[in-house]
Design goal:
Blueprint (H helix, E strand, L loop, with lengths): L6 H21 L21 H10 L4 H14 L6 E6 L6 E6 L8 E6 L3
Antiparallel strand pairs: 1-2, 1-3
Length: about 120
């Protein structure tokens, strides 16, 4: 049985929904390097990440949206990691992917690194 969300998890979920909206709107007209997501203002506990992950799944966030939101969440927790963007394949099977540094990214080759906020 899953435990019901506590207030901190709900606050993290609401922050993530707003962060996703900001990322989505910014990426509509600008580059990933132009996206600046603010970490949550208050010191939410690290286990409140449940709310962030739920919001990302519920919204079906792209890998880039997910990486940018998680980067900001982690910055709010005092962990500063870059977002990495990579590509794989050739002209016939091209693919792109974004992830946080330290996550598995095979067979993608890094082409862009976005520093933490």
């Amino acid at each position: 049985m899953k435990r019901p969300p506590d207030l901190a998890t709900i606050r993290a979920l609401l922050w993530a929904r707003g962060a996703l909206r900001h990322v989505d709107r910014t990426l509509a007209t600008k580059t990933p390097a132009d996206v600046a997501v603010r970490p949550p203002r208050s010191g939410l506990p690290s286990d409140a990440v449940r709310g962030v992950r739920y919001a990302l799944r519920r919204r079906s966030a792209t890998c880039l949206e997910r990486a940018l939101v998680m980067q900001a969440w982690l910055a709010g927790q005092g962990v500063h990691v870059p977002v990495v963007v990579g590509v794989a394949g050739g002209t016939d099977r091209f693919a792109a992917h974004a992830w946080l540094e330290g996550e598995t990214h095979e067979p993608f080759e890094e082409v862009l690194r976005l520093p933490p906020p």
